[in-house]
């Protein structure tokens, strides 16, 4: 008898929600700003005429703290598709149905103390043959990149697609959970970056489990 193992998810309940929260980068950023401001109040730290100019950085610390403490939704993956929320709560979130999603990419860069990450959704946007070239620089850059590729399958997959990017630096995101949810809800969607590695590892473990059952 075959067993289905959801890697890192336990029992999958049909959706996965990413929320804003305290991440390592958020904590380190607030601490760095607090130390910078505190150093300015040390005796003889700066000339009196400077007037504690370091206080101009305090709004950044307040903003990071407000975002992290809000625990609002950042990304939601469910049976209908992917919903990408914005940092400003009054701005409308962007929803992409699974029928339009080609690939999902999550990448992180930078050292551990100031690492940033982005979630990218490649969306199918068919354009009529002979249509006027797009004025969107992102679309033009993607088309230029595809023109230099020799893998026809790769080109066919990403031709006539647009990329939606959201920062997940201040989001408590688990690549294992997200990759597993996408693979479960939309098996035909490709994974890249951290999600690609996780998805391949999960599939390999799943095949090993099936073989031993």
Could you name the key traits of this structure?
213 residues; alpha+beta; 5-stranded antiparallel beta sheet; 4-stranded mixed beta sheet; 6 helices; elongated; disordered N terminus
Description:
With 213 residues, this protein is α+β, with helices and mostly antiparallel strands. Helices cover 37% and strands 23% of the residues. It contains six helices and nine strands. The protein has helices at 24-40, 58-70, 137-147, 152-158, 175-185, 193-212, and strands at residues 16-20, 73-77, 81-84, 94-97, 101-109, 116-124, 161-167, 171-172, 190-192. The protein has a five-stranded antiparallel beta sheet. A four-stranded mixed beta sheet has the order 7-6-5-9, with helices on both faces. A hairpin with a 3-residue loop joins strand 2 and strand 3 (81-84). It is elongated, with a radius of gyration of 22 Å. The termini are close together.
Number of helices: 6
Distance between the termini: 6 Å
User: Beta fraction of the residues?
Assistant: 15-25%
Name the quaternary structure: single chain
What is the helix fraction of residues, given as a range?
A: 25-40%
Q: How many whole angstroms does the radius of gyration measure?
A: 22 Å
Poorly predicted runs of 5 or more residues: 1-10, 128-132, 202-213
């Amino acid at each position: 008898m075959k067993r289905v193992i959801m890697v890192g998810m336990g029992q999958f309940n049909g959706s996965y929600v990413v929320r804003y929260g305290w991440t390592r980068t958020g904590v380190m950023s607030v601490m760095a700003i607090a130390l910078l401001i505190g150093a300015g109040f040390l005796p003889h730290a700066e000339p009196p005429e400077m007037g504690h100019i370091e206080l101009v950085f305090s709004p950044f610390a307040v903003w990071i703290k407000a975002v992290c403490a809000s625990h609002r939704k950042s990304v939601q993956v469910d049976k209908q598709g992917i919903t990408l929320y914005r940092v400003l709560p009054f701005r409308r979130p962007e929803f992409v149905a699974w029928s339009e999603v080609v690939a999902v990419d999550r990448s992180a860069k930078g050292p551990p103390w100031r690492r940033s990450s982005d979630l990218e959704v490649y969306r199918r946007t068919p354009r009529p043959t002979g249509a006027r070239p797009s004025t969107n620089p992102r679309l033009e850059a993607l088309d230029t990149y595809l023109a230099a590729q020799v893998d026809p399958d790769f080109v066919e997959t990403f031709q006539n697609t647009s990329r939606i990017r959201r920062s997940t630096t201040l989001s408590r995101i688990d690549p294992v959970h997200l990759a597993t949810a996408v693979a479960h809800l939309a098996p035909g969607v490709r994974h890249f970056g951290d999600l690609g590695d996780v998805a391949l590892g999960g599939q390999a473990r799943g095949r090993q489990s099936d073989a031993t059952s």
